[in-house]
Specification:
Layout: H1 18-32, H2 55-71
Helix pairs in contact: 1-2
């Protein structure tokens, strides 16, 4: 189920794959919940041969969502 956020979507958001859209939304929700940017759940992973995986794309999508929510100053107090 998609989460509707009170911030504008990035211009090309609809063309992103669904899992990266989800990472972006999760980052924005983390900001709305008052968590820290260091709470990103994605780790920088590499393949056995040392090559990069898609993990950095998820980290970037999550932090972009977090920063966009922060930029739009959308902060809702929790438990109020």
């Amino acid at each position: 189920m998609a989460v509707t956020l009170p911030i504008p979507e990035p211009s090309s958001f609809r063309s992103w794959n669904r899992s990266l859209q989800g990472a972006y939304r999760k980052g924005a929700v983390a900001r709305l919940e008052g968590r820290k940017i260091t709470d990103c759940p994605y780790e920088d992973k590499r393949k056995d041969d040392g090559r990069l995986s898609w993990s950095r794309s998820y980290i970037t999508a999550w932090t972009d969502g977090y920063r966009d929510a922060e930029k739009h100053q959308v902060i809702h107090p929790v438990n109020c």
